[in-house]
Amino acid sequence: MVHSYLDHLECGRCHATYDADRVMHLCPACGGPLLARYDLEQARREMPAPSRDGTPGGGRADLWRYAPVLPIRDPAHRVTLGEGWTPVLPLGRIGDRLGLPHLYLKDEGQNPTGTFKARGAAVGVSRARELGVTDLALPTAGNAGGAWATYGARGGLRSHVVMPQDAPVIAQREVVAAGGELQLVPGLISDAGKVVAEKAEKEGWFDASTLKEPYRIEGEKTMGYELVEQLGRMPDVIIFPVGGGVGVIGIYKAWQEMQVLGWVDGERPPRLVAVQAEGCSPIVRAYERQAAESEFFTGAETLAAGIRVPKALGDFLVLAAIYDTGGTAVAVTDAEIVEAMRSLGREEGVMACPEGAAALAGAMKLARQGWLDRGQTIVLFNTGSGFKYPELLGS
Amino acid sequence: MVHSYLDHLECGRCHATYDADRVMHLCPACGGPLLARYDLEQARREMPAPSRDGTPGGGRADLWRYAPVLPIRDPAHRVTLGEGWTPVLPLGRIGDRLGLPHLYLKDEGQNPTGTFKARGAAVGVSRARELGVTDLALPTAGNAGGAWATYGARGGLRSHVVMPQDAPVIAQREVVAAGGELQLVPGLISDAGKVVAEKAEKEGWFDASTLKEPYRIEGEKTMGYELVEQLGRMPDVIIFPVGGGVGVIGIYKAWQEMQVLGWVDGERPPRLVAVQAEGCSPIVRAYERQAAESEFFTGAETLAAGIRVPKALGDFLVLAAIYDTGGTAVAVTDAEIVEAMRSLGREEGVMACPEGAAALAGAMKLARQGWLDRGQTIVLFNTGSGFKYPELLGS
User: Hey, is the C-beta of A44 within 8 angstroms of any chain B C-beta?
Assistant: First the structure.
């Protein structure tokens, strides 16, 4: 069996195709993000069937069990800390209270680096190393920077991380602890992005900004593959906090791939729900207008730093995933986020990050509105560990 | 198949036996800690063979795959957040530097609650719930309190946690976030223990102090079972930071059980190495005198709060495990601990807690002394996530 069925890159916007085996960033034709495409027909014949019983039958309990649909050609280039195969936990007490008996939380906080960003960094750094990259650069709201610096350290790559000066302190320290170069700038992740673009160009660094390279999303998509194996099928609804949007885009990509692989025959797509903070909700505003793209959100402000992204490069892909699956987008207040953190800790024993708590707050809102119902299987994503937010823990 | 082969309790000191199906604390005859004993001959016939290829073949990727040798009789009482089956990571760069090509780290920081204490709390709380307990009380250096409060919340039990007032802030907040009652006291865990003993007696709470109930160790022992499945056999050397000692006692108990189960036929026992801080090293002092028990360590002081335990109730069991396996005990300085944290982050991408870093510092010392050699397979335990120590991360 070949190790990876990676075939080519395709622009998510104009659908131009490119060779997958050289370093690529945005589409040279239109500036859209590039997506990895595989020979899925071949993979279908050779990949093991999903286990569907909650256990990682016949393989590793990490995301490398999906190696045939990941972009690393030679396993020697894998940079791993044991990421993926995170638990799916029933939220019994909260579900009862909301009238949602099949409510679950997938706890991404149990990943290395304490967030789902570990998945994207593991695959992104591995592929960058395979393609000969030595220096990574990226702007980040915090956790992606920590993850890429950490996997960079593990893989022997240097990393250059630019963060807003008010990014969570733990993520700042994480970059330093991994030996990465940290630069703090005034403003938001969008401002950090400008600094990275300039410096990466000048220094010859690999710009690993969200969706400016094709492989971070390949790591994130494994969350979708795991759900089918852990729950036996795709859930009816998936609720995800959205900043850059790679989580939602990745899960939707997994859904599309699994259709070709025969993993989800006869199933309806999971309704994908994007949750944002009221203080930074460009995707929600676009959804309300049924627009194909979002507009830059001025004055972005929320305590959930990871979803403080005023304009995402992949906004049109997030919105397409919502529209295509019959999902929705919902905004919640910082007060609702803090209250959801409290509930998760006290009622369910889950120390969630504010972004994960936002997903619960969104579910609560949709339950009140009758958009969710008791017959549905619903999975919230807690995207990170509450331990990375000591200032909010136990507040 | 019966769910658990739990048969009786046996005193670790005087070997008196007791009924396992009622609430028990220390041995009524001699005051020694009670250990759970199973019908291992029966279990041997009915338990699945270990997978030995690094994957959790034929079962769950958490510690409940060992349910037949865990004490919970009815799976309905399981309180779980997905604990166990943590990754074993090669430490390639550090190993090369030390001349130890087969050096590994088992990363317990990827557990729920961010430490190996999740294992003991999951099993301890589950069994307490099964036996009808409603209120848990325990003294803690920090992380055990956070874990028991969190699993208590998940299981619907109230928790009462007493900590030294200078215990790590994150662990304090974790108890509060889980809705537990937190009391801070001057002094050390031994002082907290006195408060708990008094209050538990008065209020009718279940005293869940280290080894004062028989089941925490049952959760911790699963670290030993996992190693056999993940590495294919027991390693030659296991290096563990020792405070209360339950990790070492648990792994040695797993070794003894696996001999009866036929999982380690023909293997030599792993040499068990206890690492302590120079500022609190009662076990190391006892080992140096080849004593059977330790003496109370006055003036205990180290930044590694989890191993600041001046006298462990199970010290004689830790020492017996070291002597029986040809292990050793070694003390390291706080400066060596901080330096080991740096190395793990920068060279290997592992954000270790200070206790886990102490294990590496111990390995470095033993490598310099020639006690370790390049032919050995050596596993260090990183007992918790560096994110729980923001004041040390990146320092």
Answer: no
CB pairs under 8 A between A and B: 155
- Containing A323, the helix (H) or strand (E) segment is helix A315-325
Number of C-beta neighbours around residue A395 at 10 A: 12
pTM, two decimals, is: 0.98
Q: Sign of the CA dihedral A292, A296, A302, A307?
A: positive
The reply to whether residue A154 touches residue B349, judged by beta carbons under 8 angstroms, is yes
* Domains defined for chain B, CATH in brackets: 6-61 (no CATH), 88-115+216-388 (3.40.50.1100), 117-207 (3.40.50.1100)
d(CA B85, CA B79): 16
Q: Please judge whether A81 and B114 are an interchain contact, meaning their C-beta atoms are less than 8 angstroms apart.
A: no
Q: Does B101 touch chain A (CB under 8 A)?
A: no
Q: Is B338 on the interface with A (CB under 8 A)?
A: no
Task: Decide if A374 touches B, using CB distance below 8 A.
Answer: no
DSSP state of B29: T
Partner-chain residue, chosen from A110, A172, A349, that has the shortest CB–CB distance to B110: A110
Per residue of chain B (395 residues), give pLDDT as tens: 569 999 999 999 999 999 999 999 999 999 999 999 999 999 999 888 899 999 998 889 999 999 999 999 999 999 999 999 999 999 999 999 999 999 999 999 999 999 999 999 999 999 999 999 999 999 999 999 999 999 999 999 999 999 999 999 999 999 999 999 999 999 999 999 999 999 999 999 999 999 999 999 999 999 999 999 999 999 999 999 999 999 999 999 999 999 999 999 999 999 999 999 999 999 999 999 999 999 999 999 999 999 999 999 999 999 999 999 999 999 999 999 999 999 999 999 999 999 999 999 999 999 999 999 999 999 999 999 999 999 999 88
Q: Give the three-state DSSP class for B380.
A: strand
